[in-house]
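**User:**
Make up any protein.

**Assistant:**
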Amino acid sequence: MEEKSEEELKEEMSSQNSFVLFLYSPFCGTCQLAERMVEVLEKLYPSIPFVKGNVNLLPAYVHTYQVTSIPALHVCQDGKVVKKIYAFHSVPSLMMRLDSFLHLSEADRKEGNGCKR
């Protein structure tokens, strides 16, 4: 998972690309566990770009997109945050919440198909 700077995230959002952003702090123990879950998701969704951002280095993003807690996943499509996920119960629960926003079926995921619109 590639780390993005404030400027890189701004460019990514303006590009209208779909991606999933993992927000964390290196001082957060829960974030470390959540990152392992996100790494599993990254393997399960090979056609969806997953990136990460350290909230300590992203003050403008945190303010603009009203990040209220970490760890967090932001599903970004067409230059907008379309879903915010703050609860990291399990990989299957994250998959259920992501599938509805990425419009993927289990068959799509297995075949590595990307976001459908």
Q: What stands out?
A: The first helix runs from residue 6 to 14. The longest strand covers residues 19-24. The chain has five helices and five strands. The chain has one domain: 2-111.
